[in-house]
Amino acid sequence: MILSSDLLFLTDEIAGFCQCRDTRFESTVTVLLCTSGYIDVSYRGEMIRIAKDDIFIRVPYATQKGPFEYSEDFKFRMVNIPASLYEELMFAQMRVEPRWWQKQEYLKAHPVYHLSPKSIEFCDVYHRLMLLQLEDEQSDYRRQILMNIARTATMEVLKYLDKTLVLGELEIGRDSVNSSDYTFNAFTQILRENPHEREVQWYAKQLNITPKYLSEICKERSGKSASEWIADITVAELKHYLRDTTLPIREIAKVMEFPNASFFCQYTKKHTGMTPNKYRKEKKS
Predict the structure, then answer these.
(1) Predicted pLDDT at 115
(2) Which residues contact 31 (CB under 8 A, 6 or more apart)?
(3) What would be the CATH architecture of the domain defined by 2-167?
(4) How far is the C-alpha of 68 from the C-alpha of 114, rounded, in Å?
(5) Among 125, 225, 230, 238, which is most exposed with the fewest C-beta within 10 angstroms?
(6) 2 has which bridge partners?
């Protein structure tokens, strides 16, 4: 079985697994649940084993190119979602999840987890819901329902990390002892608490460093500059208001502390390719 849309790619076939290892899927999130046997795959230059009842989670751009071998009884279910959707979900999660970036980094370093029967049951439910929605091509609400399923499944992963790990003792916490790690984590925390501040200079001032140095640290730690981070958070916030609320455009501009509705409309079109009203109409349809 191979099913796909612009949001999700589902498969339980080796052909689908191979398809997801080419360059087109480097910017996607891969979630693979092994239901029988095992598979050995190359991940970040090393071979790792995914065995029965293990879940493998690959965040965007964590390379998985290289050889792989699997047992004769290997069976699995796998889903891929685009990095753009994953980032949108994670940025939205920033409102309630102070350590979302650290958890993502932990997932990058530790991609395989052995699941309990209860966790497997949750996976089965989400997979079945995704499968049913992908098969229902006539639904007017298909895209929104798929996004909501993906959003809820992402929160389940974060909840799972909370239940299985002591966050204060995460390896990422022990590793994050140099100044650039500390500064980057502090920046994401301040950004989470002040999503309407849109100037790099403002954040640099809070951290007592120069804007140039802040951008260099962000680029080094995440591949994105400070201004790109700020824009991503702002866009995620405005998408939330346009998609999930009925607030008038003028009121959203006010809540997000834009100078006026006109500037808000220009900003939205620049970063989404659509006017606020068009974006709202398309995402709610």
Answers:
(1) 87
(2) 55, 56, 57, 58, 78, 79, 80
(3) Sandwich (2.60)
(4) 20
(5) 125
(6) 11
Instruction: For residue 136, give both structure tokens.
Output: 């229902």
How far is C-alpha 136 from the chain's CA centre?
A: 25
> What is the model's pLDDT at position 237?
82
Both tokens assigned to 122: 């949750």
CA distances from 78 to 3, 20, 35, 44, 221 (A): 11, 10, 11, 19, 29
Residues 48-104: tens digit of each pLDDT = 899 999 999 887 766 666 778 889 999 999 988 877 677 666 666 655 565 666 677
Distance from C-alpha of 266 to C-alpha of 92, rounded to nearest angstrom: 22
Of 4-8, 91-95, 118-122, the poorest mean pLDDT is in: 91-95
CA distance 88 to 252: 18
For residue range 89-115, list pLDDT tens digits in order.
666 665 556 566 667 777 777 888 898
How confident is residue 178, by pLDDT bands cut at 50, 70 and 90? low
CATH number of 176-284: 1.10.10.60
Alpha-carbon distance 28 to 26, whole Å? 6
Read off the DSSP letter of residue 81: E
| 238 contacts 231 by C-beta, under 8 angstroms | no
Find, among 27, 34, 59, 30, the residue nearest to 49 by Cα: 34
Measured distance CA(195)–CA(225) in Å, rounded: 16
Residue 143: closest CA among 203, 88, 98, 207: 88
Domain range summary for the chain, segments of one domain joined by +: 2-167, 176-284
Q: Tell me the whole-structure pTM to 2 decimals.
A: 0.64
Select from 175, 198, 169, 168 the least CA-distant residue to 258.
198
